[in-house]
Specification:
The complex is a heterodimer of chains A (110) and B (112). Chain A is mainly β and 110 residues long. Chain A has strands at 5-7, 10-14, 19-24, 31-37, 43-50, 55-58, 61-66, 71-76, 85-92, 98-100, 104-109. In chain A, strands 2, 4, 5, 9, 10 and 11 form a 6-stranded mixed beta sheet that branches. A 5-stranded antiparallel beta sheet of chain A has the order 1-3-8-7-6, with no helix packed on it. In chain A, β9 and β10 (98-100) form a beta hairpin. Chain B starts with a strand and ends with a strand. The chains are: A mainly beta (110), B mainly beta (112). Chains A and B meet through β5, β9 and β10 of A and β4, β5, β9 and β10 of B.
């Protein structure tokens, strides 16, 4: 069954604006990861946040994790056209398996 | 370092035929995973190899799917016989220990 579930399914923003997407999950996790997929390509790892962390930054990316609500958010600041892609959250439990959601499709308009 | 490579990138076959997908992981990565995405839905886990052993194959849909990783290097995923609902994009990924996954570009399978 699906573990991570992203919201919204699709997001359209103007270049320079911020994009925020959320992820909810169902079971306890060791870490949560965000991936990006450009059309026709494989998924690329963006950032990993461990279950004992609450916030993490990487360049223009900011990820938060609330284990009490079983949710995470990904914020992309000052978006660029190159940020147009699908974004997936993935959760890792006690085994090596990563469980993905259906993703959020982000379109950045020039 | 070379990334994860998958072959073919596209495959169109008729219902009832057989297709074999291949994945070459990053050298030295013991963990190899197969995932599938159907019609824009969630990316579903199929199975996980650690070296040549199947660690977890709980996501394999049925016995028409057979995955192998002989020698712990490249892996193949065979679908025999293919059905219409098998259409989708099949991703392979590899990792070192419990680190981030490195994905290939996927094989887009269309069963007609």
């Amino acid at each position: 069954s699906q573990q991570g579930e992203e919201d919204p399914q699709a997001l359209s923003i103007q270049e320079g604006e911020n994009a925020t997407m959320n992820c909810s999950y169902k079971t306890s996790i060791n870490n949560l990861q965000w991936y990006r997929q450009n059309s026709g390509r494989g998924l690329v790892h963006l950032i990993l946040i461990r279950s004992n962390e609450r916030e993490k930054h990487s360049g223009r990316l900011r990820v938060t994790l609330d284990t009490s609500k079983k949710s995470s958010s990904l914020l992309i600041t000052a978006s660029r056209a190159a940020d147009t892609a699908s974004y997936f959250c993935a959760t890792r439990s006690n085994d090596y398996k990563l469980s993905f959601g259906a993703g959020t499709t982000v379109t950045v308009r020039a | 370092e070379a990334g994860v490579t998958q072959f073919p990138s596209h495959s169109v076959i008729e219902k009832g035929q057989t297709v074999t997908l291949r994945c070459d992981p990053i050298s030295g990565h013991d963990n190899l995973y197969w995932y599938r995405r159907v019609m824009g839905k969630e990316i579903k886990f199929l199975l996980h190899f650690v070296k040549e052993s199947k660690q977890d194959e709980s996501g394999m849909p049925n016995n028409r799917f057979l995955a192998e990783r002989t020698g712990g290097t490249y892996s193949t995923l065979k679908v025999q016989p293919a059905e219409l609902e098998d259409s989708g994009v099949y991703f392979c990924a590899s990792s070192q220990d419990s680190g981030p996954l490195h994905f290939g570009n996927g094989t887009r399978l269309t069963v007609t």
